[in-house]
């Protein structure tokens, strides 16, 4: 099968289920939430279980099914592990969003659009106890106009006053059969051929984490990473620029490229620790810029030029 043209979108996002009913292997959770969506009257919810089992996907799907694309941005606030979620954020950003009431629950564009908003707190178990206590008071005060969805790996790290106010949903690790089925579907869509041994190994090492399995499936070939590194070492800017163009043309995720390039840099024996430090510092800065929405081409080109500068001591590559 000829490979299809890839996009730069990570496959984890590209193949994320858009509806609750499409979430794999969480039958009890899906059944209860499907009934809840029919009434469009959601309680506060707490999703817990191992990583890569569909917790965040389910929370996002509920929000999209309730409000649709037009109202989603104004009705839903997402905060994940990359955001500062200390007590000050709870008292300002979260409280300000939660306090504003919305219109009555009239359907809009075919979506239920109930008269409340949703705040999704991913990896809530990483919040400090003080922040959680402050959040408890916010939940009590604004429960009529705002619903909270907590997502965590360890429910024991959520304080009891918060947990007791939520409907709890436990997500189970995915079986190898379910993971293999999903991986084969992605391979078919992307035009990839994966033999049975590789499929079994991928399902096994992922240990029930479908997100990890999909990420492993999309790993950039090592020769592509090595070609970029070699081009940078050569000091030929045009060659490095050509490798950057090839990477983007193939649709490889740039954040994954940075991760693999980091490994190549660290393991290289023919460059000094100072050179490694300079390159790795720039890799970290570029990765942060990508998270903030920076252009992939510019960040990858900047990493290549700074790597060249560090390896070849050529100041013109800034």
Brief sketch in words of this structure:
This protein is an alpha/beta fold and 318 residues long. The protein has 3 domains: 26-170, 3-Layer(aba) Sandwich (Rossmann fold), CATH 3.40.50.300; 175-217, Orthogonal Bundle (Helicase, Ruva Protein, domain 3), CATH 1.10.8; 222-312, Up-down Bundle (Zinc Finger, Delta Prime, domain 3), CATH 1.20.272.10. Helices cover 56% and strands 8% of the residues.
**What is the CATH domain class of the largest domain?**
Alpha Beta
Strand order of the largest sheet: 2-3-4-1-5
Helix content: 55-70%
Shape label: globular
Could you report the average pLDDT, rounded to the nearest whole number?
A: 82
The rounded distance between the terminal residues' Cα atoms is 43 Å
SSE succession: HHEHEHEHEHEHHHHHHHH
List the quaternary state of the chains. Answer: single chain
Largest sheet: 5 strands, parallel
If helices are DSSP runs of H or I spanning 4 or more residues, what is the number of helices? 14
By CATH, the topology of the largest domain is Rossmann fold
- Proportion in β-strands: 5-15%
Radius of gyration, CA atoms, in whole angstroms: 23 Å
- Structural class by helix and strand composition: alpha/beta
Total domains, how many?
Answer: 3
CATH superfamily of the largest domain: P-loop containing nucleotide triphosphate hydrolases
């Amino acid at each position: 099968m000829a490979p299809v043209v890839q996009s730069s979108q990570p496959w984890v996002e590209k193949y994320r289920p858009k509806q609750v009913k499409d979430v794999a292997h969480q039958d009890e959770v899906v059944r209860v939430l499907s009934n809840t969506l029919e009434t469009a009257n959601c309680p506060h919810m707490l999703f817990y279980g191992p990583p890569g089992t569909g917790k965040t996907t389910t929370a996002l799907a509920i929000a999209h099914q309730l409000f649709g694309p037009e109202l989603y941005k104004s009705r839903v606030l997402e905060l994940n592990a990359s955001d500062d979620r200390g007590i000050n954020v709870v008292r300002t950003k979260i409280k300000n969003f939660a306090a504003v009431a919305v219109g009555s629950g009239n359907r809009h564009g075919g979506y239920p659009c109930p008269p409340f908003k949703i705040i999704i707190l991913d990896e809530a178990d990483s919040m400090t106890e003080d922040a959680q206590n402050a959040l408890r008071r916010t939940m009590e005060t604004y429960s009529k106009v705002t619903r909270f969805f907590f997502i965590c790996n360890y429910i024991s790290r959520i304080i009891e006053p918060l947990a007791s106010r939520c409907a709890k949903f436990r997500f189970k690790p995915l079986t190898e059969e379910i993971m293999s089925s999903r991986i084969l579907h992605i391979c078919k869509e992307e035009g990839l051929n994966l033999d049975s041994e590789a499929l079994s190994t991928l399902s096994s090492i992922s240990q029930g984490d479908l997100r990890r399995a999909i990420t492993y499936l999309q790993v950039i070939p090592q020769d592509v990473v090595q070609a970029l590194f070699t081009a940078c070492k050569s000091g030929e800017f045009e060659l490095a620029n050509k490798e950057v163009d090839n990477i983007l043309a193939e649709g490889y995720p740039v954040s994954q490229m940075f991760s693999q390039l980091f490994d190549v840099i660290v393991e290289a024996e023919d460059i000094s620790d100072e050179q490694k430090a300079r390159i790795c510092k720039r890799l970290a800065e570029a990765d942060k810029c990508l998270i903030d929405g920076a252009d992939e081409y510019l960040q990858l080109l900047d990493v290549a030029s700074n790597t060249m500068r560090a390896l070849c001591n050529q100041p013109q590559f800034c």
